[in-house]
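A.,

Following up on our hallway conversation. C-alpha cells first:
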C-alpha cells in the first residue's frame, strides 16, 4: 500500500519530469527550425550579394583563385589568365584584398603569356586606382610594354608622371625594371639605364642583375677594361637561387668573351671551363671554348670540347658548324676514321635539311599553309628543321624579320582566340546573372520572414512555459499578454524588448533556457541576412549585372576590332613577305648544300691524305729494302774478296 503523502510526492515529481522533457523536446525542435531559417536566409543573401549571382560562389571561387596561382607557378600563364579572368570581371572574390590580388595576378599572367595588348588594358585599370596595392607594379610593367613596343612618348609621359614625380616609390624592383625599360630603348636610353641600374643597392635581390647590365653597357660602348671588374664582381656574389646562378654564369661567359676578344685564349679557356654542367649557357660556353682552343692551336683540346658539345647537344644551335670543324680537326690529327665518320654524319644529317629548305624556297602551297609552316619554325625546332638549322634561319636578316612578323601575327591570332574564349565564359556568367528573377527572390524573402516569425513566437512561448513552472505566475502572465499582443508578424525590436524582460525574470539560465538564447541568436542572424538581402535586391544586383553587361559588350567590340586589324595585317604580310621568305630559304639551301659539299670534299681529302700517307710509307719501305739489299750485297762482296785472296 502506498501512503497518501508518498503518493503525492511521487505524482509531483513525475509531473515535473514530464514537463521538463516536454520543454527540452520543444527547444530541440525550435533549434532545428532556427537552423533551417538561417540556412535559407544565408542562401538568399549569397544569391544576391555583389558578384554572387554568377557561376562561382564562395569557396569554389577561392579554390579557382588558388588553382590559378598554381598554374602560374608551373609557367602555364595562358591557363592562369583564363582562370582569373572570370573571377576578376564578375567580382565573385568579394573580399577586397583577394580581389585586388587577383586583378594584379591577371595582368601579370597576361604579360607573361605574351598577350601584352590585353595586359595593357588590365594594367591601366590598376593604374586608375590610386589606392591599389599593386599600382607600382602596374607602372613598371607598363613602362616595359611601352619600351618593348617603341612607344617612347607614352613611356616618358608615364615615367615623368609616376617615377620622376615620386608618386610611385622607387623600390629596388621598380628601379631595376625602369632601368631595363630604358635599356630596351637602345642607345637612346642607355645613359638612363646605367643611372637606374647603379641605384640598385648591394643588399637587393636585383643587385647582381643590375650589375650585369652595367657591365653589358660598358661592353656595348666598347670599354672592355671597365666591364671586366664589374663582371668579376658579379661572379663573386652569392648564387643561392636559380636566378642568381643564371646571372653568375652569364657574367662568367662575358669574361670569357672579353678575354677571347683580347686574344688571351688561356684566360678565356679558364673562364669558359667554370661553367657548370647544369648551366643554361653550357652549350654556348663549349662552343666558344672550342674556338678558343682552335685559335690557340690546341687542336686536341678543341676536339674534346666539340665532342662534349655534340654528345650533349646533338641538335644544338652550333652543331652544324662544329660537325664540319670536328672532321677538319680530325683530318689534321690524322684520325682518318673519325674524320670520315664526322663528315658522313654531316652529309646524312644535312641533306634532308637542305631538301627541306629547297622545298620552302620553291613551295607552291597556298599562302595560309605556307604561313603556318613558317610560323611553326618560329616557335621552335621541328622534325624537318632542327635547332641548328633554325638558328641559321634566325641569323638571316630577311628571314628573321619575316619569321618574327609571322610569329607576331600568329600570336595575335591566338590572343584573339583566347579573348573569344574569355568572352564565352563571361557570357555564361552574364546569362546566369540575367536569369536572376527579383520577384521570385522577393517572394522567397517574404516566405523566409514568415518562417522566422513563427520560430520567434514559438521560442517566446516555450520560454514562457518554462518560466511559468519556476517563477511568479503573475509576472509570467503579464509577459504572456505582451507576447500575444505582438501578433503573428512581430517587429524585431518589440521581440528584443520582450526577450530582455523574459531574461530579467530568470537571470540564472537553465540548460533549456540557454539553448533558447542560442535559438534567438540564430534567428537574429537570419533577420540581419534577410534585411541585407532585401536592401541589395534592387540596387546592388542590378548594378552588378549592368557592370558585367558593359564589360561583356566592351570585350566583344575590342575583339571584333582586333580581328579586323589581324586580317588586314595578315593579308599585307602574306603579300609582301612570302616572296622574301622564299628567297631567304633559297640562300639557306645553298648554305647547307655547301656544307654537304665541304663534307664530301672532306671525305675525299681524307682519302687522298691516307693515300698520300700510304704512298709515303711505301716509298719509305722501298728505300729501306734497297738499303738492306745494298748492305747484304756489300757483305757478299767482302766475302767474295776474302775468298779470292785465299
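Then the amino acids I'd put at each of the 646 positions:
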Amino acid at each position: 500500500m502506498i501512503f497518501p503523502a508518498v503518493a503525492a510526492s511521487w505524482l509531483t515529481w513525475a509531473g515535473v519530469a514530464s514537463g521538463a522533457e516536454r520543454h527540452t523536446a520543444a527547444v530541440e525542435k525550435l533549434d532545428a527550425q532556427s537552423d533551417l531559417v538561417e540556412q535559407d536566409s544565408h542562401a538568399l543573401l549569397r544569391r544576391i550579394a555583389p558578384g554572387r549571382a554568377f557561376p562561382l560562389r564562395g569557396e569554389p571561387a577561392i579554390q579557382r583563385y588558388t588553382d590559378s596561382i598554381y598554374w602560374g607557378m608551373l609557367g602555364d600563364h595562358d591557363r592562369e589568365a583564363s582562370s582569373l579572368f572570370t573571377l576578376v570581371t564578375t567580382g565573385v572574390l568579394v573580399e577586397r584584398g583577394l580581389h585586388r590580388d587577383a586583378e594584379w595576378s591577371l595582368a601579370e599572367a597576361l604579360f607573361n603569356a605574351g598577350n601584352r595588348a590585353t595586359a595593357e588594358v588590365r594594367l591601366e585599370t590598376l593604374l586608375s586606382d590610386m589606392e591599389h596595392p599593386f599600382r607600382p607594379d602596374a607602372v613598371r610593367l607598363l613602362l616595359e610594354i611601352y619600351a618593348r613596343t617603341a612607344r617612347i612618348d607614352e613611356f616618358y609621359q608615364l615615367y615623368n608622371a609616376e617615377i620622376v614625380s615620386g608618386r610611385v616609390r622607387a623600390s629596388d624592383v621598380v628601379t631595376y625594371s625602369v632601368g631595363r625599360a630604358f635599356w630596351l630603348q637602345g642607345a637612346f636610353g642607355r645613359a638612363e639605364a646605367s643611372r637606374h641600374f647603379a641605384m640598385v643597392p648591394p643588399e637587393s635581390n636585383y643587385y647582381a642583375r643590375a650589375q650585369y647590365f652595367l657591365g653589358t653597357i660598358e661592353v656595348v660602348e666598347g670599354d672592355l677594361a671597365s666591364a671586366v671588374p664589374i663582371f668579376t664582381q658579379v661572379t663573386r656574389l652569392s648564387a643561392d637561387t636559380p636566378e642568381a646562378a643564371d646571372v653568375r654564369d652569364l657574367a662568367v661567359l662575358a669574361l670569357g668573351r672579353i678575354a677571347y676578344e683580347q686574344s688571351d685564349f688561356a684566360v678565356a679557356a679558364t673562364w669558359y671551363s667554370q661553367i657548370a654542367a647544369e648551366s643554361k649557357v653550357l652549350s654556348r660556353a663549349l662552343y666558344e671554348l672550342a674556338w678558343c682552343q682552335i685559335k690557340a692551336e690546341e687542336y686536341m683540346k678543341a676536339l674534346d670540347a666539340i665532342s662534349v658539345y655534340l654528345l650533349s647537344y646533338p641538335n644544338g644551335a652550333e652543331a652544324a658548324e662544329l660537325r664540319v670543324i670536328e672532321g677538319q680537326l680530325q683530318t689534321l690529327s690524322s684520325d682518318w676514321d673519325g674524320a670520315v665518320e664526322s663528315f658522313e654524319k654531316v652529309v646524312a644529317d644535312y641533306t634532308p635539311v637542305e631538301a627541306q629548305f629547297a622545298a620552302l624556297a620553291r613551295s607552291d602551297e597556298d599562302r595560309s599553309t605556307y604561313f603556318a609552316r613558317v610560323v611553326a619554325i618560329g616557335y621552335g625546332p621541328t622534325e624537318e628543321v632542327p635547332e641548328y638549322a633554325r638558328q641559321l634561319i634566325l641569323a638571316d636578316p630577311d628571314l628573321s624579320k619575316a619569321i618574327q612578323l609571322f610569329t607576331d601575327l600568329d600570336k595575335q591570332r591566338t590572343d584573339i582566340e583566347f579573348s573569344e574564349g574569355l568572352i564565352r565564359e563571361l557570357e555564361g556568367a552574364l546569362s546566369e546573372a540575367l536569369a536572376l528573377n527579383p520577384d521570385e527572390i522577393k517572394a522567397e524573402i517574404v516566405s523566409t520572414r514568415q518562417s522566422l516569425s513563427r520560430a520567434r513566437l514559438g521560442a517566446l512561448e516555450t520560454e514562457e512555459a518554462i518560466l511559468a513552472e519556476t517563477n511568479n505566475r503573475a509576472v509570467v502572465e503579464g509577459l504572456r499578454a505582451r507576447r500575444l499582443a505582438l501578433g503573428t508578424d512581430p517587429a524585431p525590436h518589440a521581440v528584443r524588448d520582450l526577450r530582455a524582460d523574459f531574461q530579467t525574470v530568470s537571470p540564472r539560465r537553465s540548460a533549456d533556457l540557454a539553448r533558447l538564447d542560442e535559438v534567438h541568436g540564430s534567428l537574429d542572424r537570419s533577420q540581419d541576412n534577410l534585411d541585407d538581402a532585401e536592401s541589395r535586391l534592387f540596387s546592388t544586383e542590378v548594378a552588378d549585372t549592368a557592370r558585367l553587361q558593359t564589360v561583356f559588350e566592351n570585350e566583344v567590340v575590342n575583339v571584333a576590332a582586333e580581328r579586323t586589324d589581324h586580317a588586314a595585317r595578315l593579308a599585307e604580310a602574306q603579300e609582301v613577305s612570302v616572296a622574301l621568305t622564299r628567297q631567304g630559304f633559297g640562300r639557306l639551301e645553298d648554305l647547307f648544300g655547301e656544307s654537304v659539299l665541304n663534307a664530301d670534299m672532306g671525305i675525299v681529302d681524307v682519302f687522298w691524305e691516307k693515300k698520300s700517307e700510304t704512298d709515303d710509307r711505301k716509298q719509305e719501305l722501298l728505300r729501306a729494302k734497297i738499303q738492306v739489299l745494298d748492305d747484304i750485297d756489300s757483305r757478299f762482296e767482302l766475302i767474295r774478296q776474302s775468298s779470292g785472296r785465299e
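The radius of gyration is 43 Å. Curious whether your intuition agrees with the design.

B.
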